[in-house]
Structures are given as C-alpha cells and as structure tokens.
Amino acid sequence: MRVNAHRNNPDSWLGPNCTTQYFRDRWVYCWTTTFLEWPMANDLHEHLIELAYEAAVVPELWPNVLHQVGEIAKARGIVLLTAAPHDVRWVASPDMHDDTVAYVEGGWHERNGRLPRLLAANHAGFLRDIDVFATPEEVQQDYQIREFFRPRGLGWGAGTAIPVPSGDVLIYSVEREYQHGPIEREAIEQLDALRPHLARAALLSARLGLERAKAATESLAMLGLPAAVLRRGGRLMAANTLFDRLVPDVMQDRAERLALTTPSADALFAQAVAALEQGLISTEVRSVPIAAQDDRPPLIVHLIPIHGTARDLFDRASAIVIVTPVVPAEVPTAEVLQGLFDLTPAEARVARGIGEGRTVEAIAVAFGISRETVRNQLKAVLAKTGLGRQVELAGLLAGAKVPPGSSAD
C-alpha cells in the first residue's frame, strides 16, 4: 500500500522525514529513509540511484545508466527520448544505439503506435506493451513493432513518460528481445521503484543544461565577447549582458527565432540556422557580417554548433552565437576570410584586396587575371557575405562606417 501511495502522489516521493530540497547549492540530493520503504531496497538499487544522479550532472554517463537499469528487465537496452515526433532527440544504452539510429533515420518515430497509448494512460509508472494494447496479438500486429522491432530481434517493451519544465515529455523506453517474451510484472515493480529517481535525474539534467548555457555565455563575457546560446530552431536560450546590449538594435529575440535587424544579414543567419537544424552544419562555424551603423563598428556574428547526444537531449542547446567587432585597420588574412565566409581561395584573395583599399584593376594586375574574373569573384564574395556593394565590403573588412549614399569603386 505504501508503494502505491508513492506512485499516485509524486510529492510523497520525498517522504515525511525529508525536509530538505533535492536541488540545493551544488545540486546535492537528499538521502532519506524513504529509499528503504521501496521494494528492491538493496545495494543494486542504491547503486543505480547513485549512477542516475551522477548522470544528471555528467550527461555522458547516461548510456551506462540506461544499460544497467535495463538489466533489471533483462532488456537489450533502454532508450531515453523526447515524445515530440518533429523534434526527436535521444540517448540510448550501447546495445540499443545502432537500432535507435536506424529508428530515427527511418522515420519510425512518426509511426509509433505505442506512444499515444502510453501518453493517454497518464500513468505515473512503467507500462508494458501488453498493458496499453488490448491483447498480446495486437501488440505483434502493430505496424512499427512488426516491421521495425521484430526484424531486429526485438518486439516486447515497456515505457514511462516524464514531463520536464522545458515543455518536453521524456520517454524511458525499455526494449526487450522477442525470444524472452513480455517483461514480467516483477521487473516493472522494480523499475517503478527507480522511476522517481530517474525522473529527478532527468529534471536535474534539464536544469543543469540551462545553467551550463548561462555559464558558457558568462565565460565569454569575461573575454569581452557578446554571446548567446540558441535552442533548436534558433530560439534564444541564454545570453550574457554584453549580448543583451545588442537587443533590439542589432538583435531581436523573436518568438520563432533570434533575428538580426539588418534584413540581408538576417537572411544569411536564417539560412545558417536552417542548415544547422537539417544537420548540414557539422563542425564548421558559419559567420554573418553586419555593416557599421552610426558609432557602432561592423560586426561579425559567428554561429558555432554544439554537439553531444546526451547533452542535446536535456539542454536543447544547438549553437553558440558569438558577436565580434571588426577592429579598424586590421584586415583579416585571406585564410581567415576563407574560413569565415566559406570563400574559395581566389574569392578570399579578392576580398582581402578590397579590404586593403585596392581597386578591381589593381587586384587583376596583382594576380595576373582579367578584370572580368575579379568582378565575378567579387560578386560571389558579396553574395556569400550578404552585402550589396563593394564599398560595404571594404568598410566591413577595414572596420569603417559606410555612408548610405556611397557607391562602389
């Protein structure tokens, strides 16, 4: 009876003897006599609890935690993933990693017959497939189970839903090989005993993700750099005070995503965010120039991808945005320009020449090429930097303001 009371009333997980909060100062959690009231209150139980809270602070430990918890149910492994089909993020135990990659890449998360039933049950515990489907036969007739899991030797599972403050719902999905039959009720009871701690660990990971984002931006502030962390979709997650000063004149924190106030620069920024979301940006940095205005020097906005499966799941952080001013009289080298704006070597040489104040004719003579070739390369540079005029490019690279009525050389 005591266990059922804990299941139905999440507040009672803390127990009557626990008056300290779980999330205090250095995220110290409270060990109480409550643990002894659960079934499976033994060394293994406490070991798994310790691992879960360690993973909350060090997300890279989650695969091992999921593996060891999965052994309770004699499962191949456990996948921890988001419930949203359009924004699936996950971390899996090692033996389920390849299966999960195939699952997501094949779009099988969009044909999930188990998840709607699990969410509809609204049960604060683990439920087996045979608990949410009418019969064991119906389980095996489910399209996803029949076409994806069975060919991989799987076919029996259990899951539980964990809401987190970001609005996500995290799913612990236990996957068992078909030959072993449905997961036993005794295993579910042991998983239910761990569920409050798995829920708290996931919640703590989500909270620490925001703290990590804030810490990253503040570290860059110490270097004098305006910086922000973006969530998936380009929405603002955290920013330092230097970045805040750029809002709303240079940046705008819109509902759909962070935006740049200069239309041409924002178009390039939107393309970079879209490429990031589609996985087209792996490790390289995308940079977007913003022309000088009034007393503000030209700026370059750098979009830097963030990677790490477990961190992606909890943090929802996809990129760091760093804004750097262009210092007058310091024209970047051709190699730097090439890296910043994805220029070809020839385009980078032309861009540097323009930044140094050379004319098209002078650049053509210096490199032994025709003026038409230089002009074509210059057009490509302007397109990649989002600028419309040669004088704007010169002003950006030399750190000078560009008068509105100026014309190209």
Please name the defining characteristics of this protein.
409 residues; alpha+beta; Beta-Lactamase; Arc Repressor Mutant, subunit A; 3 domains; five-stranded antiparallel beta sheet; 44% helix; disordered C terminus; Helix-turn-helix transcriptional regulator; DNA binding
How is the CATH topology of the largest domain named? Beta-Lactamase
Uncertain segments: 1-41, 400-409
CATH class descriptor of the largest domain? Alpha Beta
Please state how the strands of the largest beta sheet are arranged side by side.
Answer: 2-1-5-4-3
Distance between the termini: 84 Å
Mean of residue pLDDT values: 78
Order of helices and strands: HHHEEHHEHHHEEHEEHEEHEEHEHHHHH
Number of domains: 3
InterPro entries: Sig_transdc_resp-reg_C-effctor (IPR016032), Tscrpt_reg_LuxR_C (IPR000792), WH-like_DNA-bd_sf (IPR036388)
Protein name: Helix-turn-helix transcriptional regulator
Domain HTH luxR-type: 336-401
GO molecular function: DNA binding
What does this structure look like?
The chain has 409 residues and is an alpha+beta fold. The chain folds into three domains: 2-207, Beta-Lactamase, CATH 3.30.450; 223-325, PAS domain (Beta-Lactamase, 2-Layer Sandwich); 328-409, Winged helix-like DNA-binding domain superfamily/Winged helix DNA-binding domain (Arc Repressor Mutant, subunit A). It is 44% helix and 16% strand. The chain has 17 helices and twelve strands. It has helices spanning 2-8, 43-57, 62-70, 97-105, 114-121, 129-132, 136-141, 143-149, 185-222, 241-244, 263-277, 309-315, 334-341, 345-355, 360-367, 371-385, 390-398, and strands spanning 77-82, 90-92, 127-128, 154-163, 169-177, 227-231, 236-239, 251-253, 258-260, 286-290, 299-305, 317-325. The strands form three sheets. It has a five-stranded antiparallel sheet, with helices on both faces. Strands 7-6-12-11-10 form a five-stranded antiparallel sheet. Strand 6 (227-231) and strand 7 form a beta hairpin. Helix 13 (334-341) packs across helix 14 (345-355) and helix 14 packs across helix 17 (390-398). The longest helix has 38 residues, at 185-222. The chain is elongated and about 80 Å long. It starts with a helix and ends in an 11-residue tail after the last helix.
